[in-house]
């Protein structure tokens, strides 16, 4: 519904996706507008800056054919909104929330601002319920907890898309009959990647409990800025209006930040680190902080943002700022990937700061934390010995050293390298004990005697077949 019939005709300047309008100080920040050209074509846009002299509008489509003399601007809505409904589950949308699956528009129950509402810190509940991803390295070593924001740090050419699809397909809350949904938002995809995600979700049946927002690389830059906000608005509605436990997967945040930099350049802003806007920390926080659990409400929003680190540089501004805001990271490793191990997640630089809240007796298993610590220590020891062997040769090692060296191989091939298997937490613990049982009991210094007596000697040979891609 049009809120205001007034038109603004004094368009003074067009720069890339930006349009500058004079004498439009009564337009509101974040308002949605229509831009009409001389041929009657209408494009959408959003107000991103207002001053006494002019307003700056981001245009959602290309600006070809727009003429300063004939273009006019009219208000549509006071703020960017998305029509939401439970019927969105099982549907595919573009980055602006328009259906791309050939089905009719969703009949909206509500129209919500895509900027969301900040959660009152006093109303936040402590995240302490385990989410099972079916991936051993995540579930055992960097456990995901409801309401957490746990990013995946990847790199160019690494299989983070395949990992994202596997997490979306397998994630569940074990032992719970509460509704669970996945909201998947992809930004800057190639056509091949769009086809991959579409086919993967449909082939595996994961689409039945998912909402997909797919923004392509050739879509307007500004659409990439709105896509994660569309997804998070949908997630908040499903979680806090209908009690769903929602897992939000955002990929690739690097493309999102590149869009921020492009828009900042068009606005002639003073650049910050590596040319990115100085407000990028605040902007990313406005996305990541929309995860959480609210006291008195049954649902939750959990986030797994995925970003590809330029040049595998973890100190780059995008992963660096993400690390400040989020509660850990899952690191995809290029060396493991080169060995054909999938998913190539390296547990040593990975971390889940909320892991301790959601594991242990009555949640996963009583020996979970100790087994995780022991795996970490033994694998780190094995990698150190690999470096030593490269210098001195294996003959210089003691028998115990050789066992740790073999442990590192088994850990990579059978625990990390599970391929496309969907492992329950019990399956993952069984594989972990099977590998640890190849070490002498005296070397299991992180695990209590009761657990050793109960699980040491576990055999899992049948689970070790066909785990590598």
Automatic annotation (TrEMBL):
One of its GO terms (molecular function) is proton-transporting ATP synthase activity, rotational mechanism. This is V-type ATP synthase beta chain. One of its GO terms (biological process) is proton motive force-driven plasma membrane ATP synthesis. Keywords: ATP synthesis, Hydrogen ion transport, Ion transport, Transport. Pfam families: ATP-synt_ab (PF00006), ATP-synt_ab_N (PF02874), ATP-synt_VA_C (PF22919). Signal peptide: none annotated. It comes from Deinococcus detaillensis. Produces ATP from ADP in the presence of a proton gradient across the membrane. The V-type beta chain is a regulatory subunit. SUPFAM superfamilies: C-terminal domain of alpha and beta subunits of F1 ATP synthase (SSF47917), P-loop containing nucleoside triphosphate hydrolases (SSF52540). Residues 358-456 form the ATP synthase A/B type C-terminal domain. Belongs to the ATPase alpha/beta chains family. NCBIfam families: PRK04196.1. Residues 134-352 form the ATPase F1/V1/A1 complex alpha/beta subunit nucleotide-binding domain.
């Amino acid at each position: 519904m049009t809120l205001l019939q007034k038109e603004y005709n004094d368009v003074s300047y067009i720069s890339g996706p930006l349009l500058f309008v004079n004498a439009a100080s009564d337009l509101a920040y974040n308002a949605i507008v229509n831009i009409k050209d001389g041929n009657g074509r209408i494009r959408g846009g959003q107000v991103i800056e207002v001053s006494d002299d002019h307003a700056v509008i981001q245009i959602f489509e290309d600006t070809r054919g727009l003429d300063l003399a004939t273009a006019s601007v009219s208000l549509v809505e006071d703020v960017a909104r998305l029509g939401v409904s439970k019927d969105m589950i099982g549907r595919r949308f573009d980055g602006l929330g328009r259906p791309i699956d050939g089905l009719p528009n969703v009949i909206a129950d509500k129209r919500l601002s895509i900027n969301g509402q900040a959660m009152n810190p006093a109303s936040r509940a402590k995240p302490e319920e385990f989410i099972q991803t079916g991936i051993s390295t995540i579930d055992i070593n960097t456990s995901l907890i409801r309401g957490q924001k746990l990013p995946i740090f990847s790199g160019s050419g690494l299989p983070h898309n395949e990992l994202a699809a596997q997490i979306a397909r397998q994630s569940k809350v074990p032992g719970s009959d509460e509704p669970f949904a996945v909201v998947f938002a992809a930004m800057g995809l190639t056509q091949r990647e769009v086809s991959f995600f579409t086919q993967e979700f449909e082939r595996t049946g994961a689409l039945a409990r998912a909402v997909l927002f797919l923004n392509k690389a050739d879509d307007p830059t500004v659409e990439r800025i709105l896509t994660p906000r569309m997804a998070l608005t949908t997630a908040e509605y499903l979680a806090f209006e209908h009690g769903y436990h929602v897992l939000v997967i955002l990929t690739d945040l690097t493309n999102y930040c590149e869009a921020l930099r492009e828009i900042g350049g068009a606005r002639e802003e003073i650049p910050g680190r590596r040319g990115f806007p100085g407000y990028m920390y605040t902007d990313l926080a406005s996305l990541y902080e929309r995860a959480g659990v609210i006291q008195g409400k049954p649902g939750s929003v959990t986030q797994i943002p995925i970003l590809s680190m330029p040049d595998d540089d973890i100190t780059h501004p995008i992963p660096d700022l993400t690390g400040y805001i989020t509660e850990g990271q899952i690191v995809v490793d290029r060396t493991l990937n080169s060995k054909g191990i999938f998913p190539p997640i390296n547990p040593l630089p990975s971390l889940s700061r909320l892991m301790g809240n959601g594991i242990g007796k009555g949640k996963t298993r009583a020996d979970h934390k100790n087994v995780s610590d022991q795996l970490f220590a033994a694998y780190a020891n094995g990698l150190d010995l690999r470096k030593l062997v490269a210098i001195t040769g294996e003959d210089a090692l003691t028998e115990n050293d050789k066992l740790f060296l073999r442990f590192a191989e088994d850990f990579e091939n059978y625990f990390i390298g599970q391929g496309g298997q969907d492992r329950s937490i019990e399956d993952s613990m069984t594989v972990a004990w099977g590998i640890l049982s190849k070490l002498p009991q005296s070397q299991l210094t992180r695990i209590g005697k009761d657990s050793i007596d109960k699980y040491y000697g576990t055999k899992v040979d049948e689970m070790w077949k066909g785990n590598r891609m």
